[in-house]
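agent> Task received from the user: take the single chain below, predict its 3D structure, and emit structure tokens. No templates, no multimer pairing.
agent> Plan: (1) validate residues, (2) run structure prediction, (3) serialize to tokens, (4) report one or two observations.
agent> Step 1 OK, no nonstandard residues flagged.
tool_call: predict_structure(input=
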Amino acid sequence: MPEYLRTAGYKIYFWSNETDEPIHFHATKGNPSKNDTKVWVLANGSFKLAHNKGQIPEKDLSRIFSAMQGYYFDFLNFWKSYFHTEIKFHD
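)
tool_result: status=success, residues=91
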């Protein structure tokens, strides 16, 4: 489980076995679980909430999106170098 960033009290990470999925990240305050919030990273430089099973408040989601916006290209590179593959984006 590669952790990319900590922001607003949340861990931003992805599971190491998700190489077949489009680029995304999960966010959690505690230990990572299958019920954490999932966010798609889009090709246009924005983000799309896949689901909010982690029940992160809207205010905190905004903070997470804002922080990740500043690291958009770094995150793409991190994902690509971790999986050693081309990036697939969510439609």
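agent> Step 4: summary for the user.
Helices lie at 58-70, 72-83.
agent> Done.
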